[in-house]
Write a structure and sequence with these properties.
The structure holds 2 protein chains of 2 kinds. Chain A is built from 17 helices and 7 strands. Chain A has helices spanning 63-68, 72-79, 87-102, 108-137, 140-161, 183-205, 209-215, 223-228, 234-237, 245-248, 269-294, 313-318, 320-331, 372-378, 380-383, 389-399, 403-407, and strands at residues 14-16, 22-27, 39-45, 48-55, 338-347, 350-359, 366-370. Classes of the chains: A alpha+beta, B alpha/beta. The interface between A and B is large, with 61 and 47 residues.
């Protein structure tokens, strides 16, 4: 324990112990490249890490507790605040879980729009990942380029739902709105340019000496480690396990579209970077196919289930019984059947799961959010030892953790 | 007389309940309908006692004795190819039967199947850690302890993870109020300024909708506006409400039918 006086000042961040060479460094909780409130206690021998101890909880808002005190529809905007980089995918996971619990079938046009939103969110998230990680490593140009494209996507999402970051763009039972005019044309314009943009990033980074030194053979996650730590998404696929929930347990229309699941067996930072780039291309491919599906769908947007879902606006405004049901559903909330469900979706970060235990009340009895970043932060305990201080930033970057999701 | 509020579950309740309403059930089907699940269940049954097993929403649920948890998970990992523990947490049934229900959400990538293993322990009991089998249980079990106070045996680092180390109470228990208890109210004041500052600062307001009538620091009270910090305990002047439109509301003087658009699409 330090005993500060005027001659021996108190170092808030560093503990010196003269009896051995170990130095304990506090990384965070306000470190700009920790991508949120991550505190890492690093035990160091010179510059090498011997022990790492991630400390989380600085952004804990008790979302699971909040969910127990809210009706189902009320919780939807709260899910935005989990992975706020790709908030529609959180909305979607929750909507899908409740739909599975009730047993709802969503109209095809809603599915198409949801697929568009999900893939646009994936692109936004990956672009954001690329931008921030490149910035952490020191590549500022890539940051500006990637944010330019992300901005275009955010404008498109704004056209659709009015929000840029916290979308709340998906409802239980469908989607609230149809696509605005020119949306598809604008999206096409973006998609036509995207391959060029991705090529620009790759030209800047792929064979960049600094980028490769920071990325190659750094942060190697073995297959066993990835499985044992509950890794998912790109963290898992970069370690040589071909597992994408969109392919293996298809939801929405993912079984109708053609796309590849990029896999690498290297397990290092560079492999993860390559997979992010490849996934962006696949997302663009999916979006092209989904756009073509949109034309031959009927205009229904919400499932027809009067017990759980409000009728379309036109019915509410013209038919008395629909208005009454709408009133009950808004003030008291839907009451799903008694039972429990665990639904996993492939969010941009990995397996996003919602476990809901319903006791037939308007409030869920228990709702557990399975956020991928939680375990991707935990793995730092085993991943960081042996690496050097500068590698920490690169490794945190490629784990792609978002603290809204880690702490919930 | 005050309305009775149950103390063992202080979560929000619906204000209207239909006493004749019977909640429907999510369908449970027999395990024999799925060959893969049936084989898995046989393998578990051969070594351990299975209290209940069924398929719900395409996933098998297996209820076991809490003492067997490590054995069952080990069997599933080593022999049944369930290679990932996606999730692990508890459900608070203390009010109903004095027990916690603990569930392990398992995933087999080779079989593309998910199984939920469940067991129940009473409040004073503890459970065996599965951290030796799946490292992911390290953090999940810490979170479970943090949120419910379920103690896990043989865990390498049984400590709170999301809440501060010196926190009192377990936030996800049904007895814990949404906006925090007495301890939570004073936690930051005590920690930052010390207990002696309690009178000056007051308890933390954890209700975002609360408006203090005499608070002139943070809220403007419509119709009674006074400068910030004014002492209004002796009453305050009434400020007449006035709106911008009082000089005349914006009106269209000349309506040009040719330039206007009629919205025909009512759905949007």
């Amino acid at each position: 324990m330090q005993q500060p006086n005027r001659l021996r000042p108190f170092f808030e961040n560093i503990t010196f112990d003269r009896s051995d060479n170990e130095l304990i460094l506090n990384f965070g909780p306000q470190h700009p490249s920790a991508h949120g409130q991550l505190r890492l206690m690093l035990h160091l021998q010179q510059e090498q890490i011997t022990k790492a101890h991630p400390d989380i909880g600085y952004l804990h808002r008790g979302m699971e507790k909040m969910a127990e005190n809210m009706i189902y529809n009320e919780f939807m905007p709260t899910t935005d605040r989990m992975d706020y980089i790709a908030s529609s995918s959180n909305n979607y996971g929750f909507a899908l879980a409740v739909e599975k619990l009730i047993g709802l079938e969503v109209p095809r046009r809603a599915k198409v729009i949801r697929m568009m939103l999900l893939e646009m969110n994936r692109l936004m998230s990956h672009l954001f990942w690329l931008a921030t990680t490149a910035l952490d490593i020191g590549a500022m140009t890539v940051f500006l380029f990637a944010f330019r494209e992300r901005e275009y996507l955010m404008d498109l999402i704004e056209d659709y739902c009015g929000a840029r970051l916290t979308h709340a763009a998906i409802r239980i039972g469908g989607v609230p709105l149809d696509l605005p005019d020119n949306f598809i044309a604008d999206l096409r314009k973006f998609l036509d340019k995207l391959p060029e943009n991705i090529k620009d990033y790759e030209d800047l980074l792929d064979s960049n000496r600094i980028w490769k030194m920071r990325m190659e053979n750094v942060g190697v996650i073995s297959k066993e480690m990835a499985l044992s730590w509950g890794c998912s998404g790109i963290m898992l696929r970069a370690s040589g396990i071909e597992w994408d929930i969109r392919k293996e347990e298809p939801y929405e229309l993912y079984d109708e579209v053609e796309f590849n699941v990029p896999v690498s067996d290297k397990g290092d930072n560079y492999a993860r970077y390559k997979l992010y780039m490849a996934e962006m291309r696949e997302s663009a491919k999916i979006l092209h196919q989904v756009i073509d599906m949109y034309a031959d769908t009927t205009p229904e947007l919400m499932a027809h289930a009067p017990q759980y879902i409000s009728a379309p606006k036109i019915d509410i405004m013209t038919q008395n019984y629909s208005l009454m049901q709408h009133f009950v559903l808004v003030t008291q909330g839907m009451r799903p059947p008694v039972g429990e469900v665990y639904v996993a979706t492939e969010s941009p970060k990995g397996e996003l799961g919602y476990y809901i235990n319903s006791q037939g009340d308007a409030y869920p009895y228990r709702l557990k959010l399975r956020a991928p970043s939680f375990w991707h932060t935990g793995i730092l305990t085993d991943l960081l030892p042996g690496h050097y201080i500068p590698d920490v930033v690169a490794i945190i970057g490629t784990t792609n953790i978002v603290f809204g999701e880690v702490d919930r | 007389m005050r309305a009775y509020t149950p103390k063992d579950n202080v979560q929000k309740k619906p204000y209207y309940t239909d006493r004749y309403w019977v909640a429907p059930q999510v369908a449970k089907t027999d395990v024999s309908e799925d060959a893969v699940f049936a084989a898995d269940l046989e393998a578990i049954r051969a070594k351990f006692e299975v209290l209940d097993a069924y398929i719900q929403v395409k996933q098998m649920v297996v209820v076991i004795n809490a003492a067997d948890n490590f054995g069952v998970i080990e069997l599933m990992k080593n022999e049944l190819e369930y290679n990932q523990l996606s999730e692990l947490s508890a459900i608070d049934w203390l009010a109903k039967e004095g027990k916690f229900e603990i569930f392990y959400q398992m995933l087999s990538m080779s079989k593309r199947k998910r199984i939920r293993v469940k067991c129940k322990i009473s409040e004073k009991e503890s459970i065996q850690s599965v951290e030796k089998l799946f490292r992911s249980a390290d953090w999940s079990e810490r979170e479970m302890y943090d949120m419910f106070g379920v103690v896990v045996n043989n865990h390498p680092f049984m400590k709170r993870i999301l809440m501060p180390d010196d926190w009192e109470g377990f936030p996800l228990r049904k007895t814990y109020p949404l906006q925090g208890d007495e301890f939570a109210q004073w936690y930051e004041v005590d920690k930052i300024f010390g207990k002696e500052a309690r009178d000056i600062i007051g308890p933390e307001n954890r209700d975002p909708a609360r408006v203090d009538r005499y608070d002139t620091e943070r809220f403007a009270r419509l119709g009674h506006e006074v400068p910030r910090g004014t002492d209004i305990s002796q009453g305050e002047p009434v400020t007449p409400l006035c709106y911008q439109e009082s000089d005349g509301v914006f009106l269209i003087e000349k309506f040009d039918a040719e330039k206007s658009v009629v919205i025909s699409d009512r759905d949007r």
